[in-house]
């Protein structure tokens, strides 16, 4: 498997978590755990 494809598999879930956190931070009206 090409290295760039392997890196993409690692980066994708991390990016998802990052954006989910960012979106929560932009909407403080939603309760946080």
UniProtKB/TrEMBL annotation:
KTSC domain sequence ranges = 2-26
| Organism for this UniProt entry | Hyphomicrobium denitrificans 1NES1
Listed name of the protein:
KTSC domain-containing protein
Q: Which Pfam families match?
A: KTSC
**Species classification:** Bacteria, Pseudomonadati, Pseudomonadota, Alphaproteobacteria, Hyphomicrobiales
